[in-house]
From TrEMBL:
GO terms for biological process: proteolysis. One of its GO terms (molecular function) is metallodipeptidase activity. This is Membrane dipeptidase. It comes from Eiseniibacteriota bacterium. PROSITE patterns: RENAL_DIPEPTIDASE_2 (PS51365). It comes from the Bacteria. Pfam families: Peptidase_M19. InterPro entries: Metal_Hydrolase (IPR032466), Pept_M19 (IPR008257).
């Protein structure tokens, strides 16, 4: 089995005392031993201030997680690679070290400073999630009501231009409907929505409608399907079969080449009932087959689609 995850929040565990993601930790849902066991080529590791700290504390919190990620790479003895370029990624995609693609989840931590992107880029960040749930100076998040949804602001458009210049991949997970549409009109392919579900199966502000899925596919985009139960079912427990149902629906609507996995591991407090962490997702292959996906499509969802999109999004070098 091979695996690529478009969104994990394990850097929040890396800053906790007593947690060692290199040795493995029961307090984490994903760590290096489990990534290795899953055949992971790599993952997008997000640093996120999801408690919305005030002012500079927000950026400091994110920087602490980014530093923890870089420290993991330095201590991993070659088992982890900080992916900065397409050349780095090709080493990981070929089955070398597990790739760590650093991300900042929520541009609110930039405190309205477009120039801060260059500093994040210098630290190795290659993915920026434009919003978290709330609005920030750049765009509206998915928490906006229809009357509050202002979409992308002029400063946000400037941010996207600068991100393209630097080679940063913009992630539109958590975006409001108007922000998603505005940003997709400005961004080059591949468009990324790293972790979401299907609104047709579970109406939720974090999920994509069928129209959005079609627009994403038309723009050369990719959606990572989450495993977080509240995004998959209205009530009760989700299972890997529930996850597979969302994958299958997205594949029918957007095409199987537009679907990947973005679990949100270590950013979620609930898991499917038959999953304890990354190690439980070995059941997903069978669930996807039972949902009607062909073997080639399953390989695409589990890693090939993400591998292709990551290679296209990263700068050469």
């Amino acid at each position: 089995m091979a695996w690529i995850d478009l969104h994990i929040d394990s850097l929040r565990r890396a800053v906790e005392p007593g947690v060692d993601l290199l040795a493995g930790s029961a307090r984490a849902q994903a760590d290096l031993p489990r990534l290795r066991a899953a055949g992971a080529r790599g993952a997008i590791w997000a640093a996120c201030d999801d408690v919305y700290l005030e002012g500079p504390e927000s950026l400091a919190f994110v920087l602490r997680m980014l530093a923890a990620g870089r420290d993991l790479v330095e201590r991993a003895g070659g088992e982890l690679l900080l992916v900065r370029s397409r050349a780095d990624w090709e080493r990981c995609r070929a089955g070398g070290p597990v790739g760590m693609i650093l991300a900042v989840e929520g541009a609110h931590s930039l405190l309205g400073c477009v120039e801060g992107l260059a500093a994040l880029h210098a630290l190795g960040v290659r993915v920026l999630t434009l919003t978290w749930n709330q609005a920030n100076p750049f765009a509206s998040g998915c928490g906006a009501t229809p009357g509050e949804d202002r979409g992308l602001t002029p400063l946000g458009a400037e941010l996207l231009v600068r991100a393209r210049e630097l080679g940063l991949w913009i992630d539109l997970a958590h975006a409001s409907p108007r922000t998603l549409a505005d940003a997709m009109a400005l961004l080059p392919p591949p468009i990324l929505v790293s972790h979401a579900g299907c609104a047709a199966l579970r109406p939720h502000r974090r999920n994509l409608t069928d129209d959005q899925l079609r627009a994403l596919a038309a723009a050369g985009g990719l959606v990572g399907i989450t495993i977080y139960p509240p995004f998959l079912v209205a009530e009760g427990g989700a299972t890997v079969a529930t996850v597979a149902a969302h994958v299958a629906h997205a594949a029918r609507v957007a095409g199987p080449g537009a679907v990947a996995m973005g679990t949100d591991l270590d950013g979620i407090t609930l898991l499917p009932t038959d999953v304890r962490g990354l190690e439980g997702l070995d059941r997903l292959r069978g669930a996807l087959a039972a949902a009607g996906l062909a073997e080639e499509e399953i390989e695409g969802v589990m890693w090939r689609n993400a591998a292709r999109a990551i290679a296209a999004a990263l700068p050469e070098g």
